[in-house]
Amino acid sequence: MQLKTLIEEIKKEVYNFQDVTISDIEFDSRKVKKGTLFIAVPGEKFDGHKFIDDARNRGAVAVVTERRVETDLPQIVVPDTRKIMSILARKLYGDFNELKKIGITGTNGKTTTAFLIHSILNRARISTGLIGTIYYIGKEKTRAEKTTPEAPDIYRLLNKFRNEGIHYVVMEVSSHALKLERVETLKFDTVVFTNLSQDHLDFHQTIEDYKNSKLHIFDLLKDKGTAVVNMDDPIIKDIYRRPLKHIVTFGMNKNANFWAEVLDEDINGITVQINHQGKKYELNSRLFGQYNVYNILAAFTTAFLMNINPEIIAEGIRAVSRIPGRMEQVVENVFVDFAHTPDAIKNVLSSLRKYIKGKLYIVFGCGGDRDKEKRPKMGAVATELADFAIITSDNPRSEPPKKIINDIIKGIKGNNYKVIEDRAEAICYALKLKKKDDVVLVAGKGHEEYQILKDRTIPFRDAEVIVKCSVNL
Question: Where does the record place the Mur ligase central domain (predicted)?
């Protein structure tokens, strides 16, 4: 597309104009190639305006900035480069209205719900892509960099999906993505809202801002789109206040449009009966825990509203045996989970408690440079629900690990805990404590394959450490 056509409808000031051909849009100068329009976005740590020369050297043919800078490239100055990024990406790559888009948001359950819906649609022979925390899945599977990528990356993925003949896209939508307008120019056919509890207050500052950012996803729902929401979560009151035309509820409450009751459960899975308009549908899942009943409900409801045969839905749910880092049993009675909020820790420990005969141990920490208010709350809930907690490092980032650990300890009333700063040592210590009927939960990092320290990022995977420690016991 020609630059003149691409920018013709936006508010701007233009310098050094040449009507060059734009083949791509990029905000990361390291990924720029010949024919790229480079957008200089100010970030928390780095300012894209400082990398314009690097972008030029790599092949950028024009730049979008928030202030005039010294460059011989065509330069388009706009009030907000982050906001304009999604607008330009949509215009360059297309609006993708023909792709049916299912957006999933909420504090907990996004990833599991997305995997379940993706599995169901594939069982129904509906070609489906997935954009989520762990993977981006089309015809190929790649590791995700962010739960919800930046706008140009989203549009490139959608373009790739369309070229692969994909018709549906299941997308996890984070509060950061909603606040930073990464998905602002998308329109969703279905929006799923799982639940809301405290998280990301380092970014949002207040729970109110976090909540409102999450609720903004409903503003991106198509006029004829459907909101699939958790009736049992207090957020339902805020959702009902919004001018939504099509709301469908799920929950354990009989007043929900789709409600479930647990028929059987153990550590190997769960059997639920979903009730809707007088009909009953029995489902077996290899996932377990009541919190997963809600994820199953959300997936079943979404698929049912797409007129997918309930038997196919049941097959799709049953096919999901494990999700990396989501209550993943690595060795016998040793689990890894991504739980990194007070509510998530509570849900996972409460679920495990039902199935064990011995003691319940938890190894966890909290991320540095992130929501500090949740640290003592996580310490409190972990030591209340587990028999013993080993408090360690998560991703300390720029903060001293001891400071983070001390914040966690502030919420602990008893003495049923031990501090081991080194995460690998902490995991091995927990496994040494474990007896035959005991269970160990290693929480917080889940699927992550790294640990972010002050001056470096190192390879680190909880599951690998568990296997290694188990062999050496």
Answer: 104-302
The answer to whether the annotation marks 111 as part of a ligand binding site is yes
342 marked among binding-site residues: no
Q: Answer yes or no: is 444 a known binding residue.
A: yes
Same domain for 48 and 80, yes or no, is yes
pLDDT bucket at 201, cuts 50 / 70 / 90: low
- Per-residue pLDDT, averaged over 438-456, amounts to 93
pLDDT tens per residue across span 283-321: 999 998 888 999 999 999 999 999 999 999 999 999 998
103 is an annotated ligand-binding site residue = no
31 is in an annotated binding site: no
* Region 266-271 average pLDDT: 89
407/396 Cα distance (integer angstroms): 13
**321 annotated binding-site participant:** no
468: left (phi over 0), alpha (psi -120 to 50) or beta: alpha
The mean per-residue pLDDT over the stretch 396-400 comes to: 95
Query: Is 254 a known ligand-binding residue?
Result: no
Domain of residue 79, CATH code: 3.40.1390.10
Residue 203 pLDDT > 70: no
CATH, residue 408: 3.90.190.20
In a domain, 323, yes or no: no
Q: Are 37 and 88 in contact (CB under 8 A)?
A: yes
Last residue of a domain, one of 93, 112, 144: 93
For residues 439 and 311, membership in a common domain is answered with no
Structural domain that includes position 84:
3-93
Pairing relationship of beta strands 60-65 and 36-39 according to DSSP bridges: parallel
Residue 106 annotated in ligand binding? yes
Average pLDDT over residues 174-183: 90
Are both 171 and 263 inside the same structural domain? yes
Judge contact between 36 and 48, C-beta under 8 A: no
Looking at the fold, whether 293 and 168 belong to one and the same domain comes out as: yes
User: Does 174 show up as a binding residue in the annotation?
Assistant: yes
Would you list the DSSP string of 370-415?
Answer: S-STHHHHHHHHHHHHSSEEEE--S--TTS-HHHHHHHHHTT--SS
Q: Is 394 annotated as a binding residue?
A: yes
367 labelled ligand-binding: no
42 has binding-site annotation: no
Domain boundary among 291, 318, 345: 318
Mean pLDDT of 90-99: 93
Rg, C-alpha atoms of the chain: 23
